[in-house]
Amino acid sequence: MDNIIAIAAVILYATSIATIIPGLVQHIGIRAKTVFISAALALLFHAWLLSDLILEGSGQNLSILNVASLISFIISVVMSVAMLKTRIWFLLPVVYSFSAINLAVATFVPNTFITHLEHNPELLLHISLALFSYSTLSIGALYAIQLAWLDHKLKSKKALTINPNLPPLMMVERQLFKIILIGTALLTLTLATGFVFVQDMFAQGKAHKAILSFIAWVIYSVLLWGHYQKGWRGTRVTWFAIAGATLLTLAYFGSRFVKEIILT
């Protein structure tokens, strides 16, 4: 049954992508209703499958593949809601592709890492904040890439050929810094709850998570300070956002990828 649900979700994600791409390539209108309905159904199946994959009888299966699929789901939900208000067509094919791939891999490549968060609500809070901060700042990295691409188009004097399905540059920049501000606040809470509730936070095999996450927090804090106090824009902003997201990816997935995927 899970395999059928996964295949259905992948097909629905692919339908949304196939509806968006012609509009981006040919500069024609995009059928937003078709995209939204397909994505909503895909997310419904995705949530259904995640509940089966993660909520096992003996605990919670927070394997790296399940966590990656959960993060993809969170990002896709946020971006699908944002679709109703802003023109984010450039980003949706990337987001939905990752969701489809992560969901398929989590389903067809069994992976187990059982936890018992029902007995440790403080750890559940910490993990939830970590998931939402990483998801938010990953969205920020995607916005930064879109901002850099739009900026390149304008500087290369191709403003007249910019697709009408794409958002204005200044709107993307405003949204980017709102996202990074929210993500940094969540990351601050993640680090704070980690220091308070995770007793072995700096134990062997775990210290790199705290260190890399703190370095990422410094990078995002400097970026926000530079933008609001010094007026930073352009390429510098993109590199800071990507660097922060990369460090968080290494912090959250680095060692577990080696342990659960490479060494198994």
TrEMBL record:
Keywords: Membrane, Transmembrane, Transmembrane helix. Residues 37-262 form the Cytochrome c assembly protein domain. One of its GO terms (cellular component) is plasma membrane. Coiled coil: none annotated. GO terms for biological process: cytochrome complex assembly. GO terms for molecular function: heme binding. The chain crosses the membrane at residues 6-25, 32-50, 62-81, 88-109, 129-150, 176-198, 210-228, 237-255. It comes from the Bacteria. This is Inner membrane protein YpjD. It comes from Vibrio gelatinilyticus. The lineage of its organism: Bacteria, Pseudomonadati, Pseudomonadota, Gammaproteobacteria, Vibrionales.
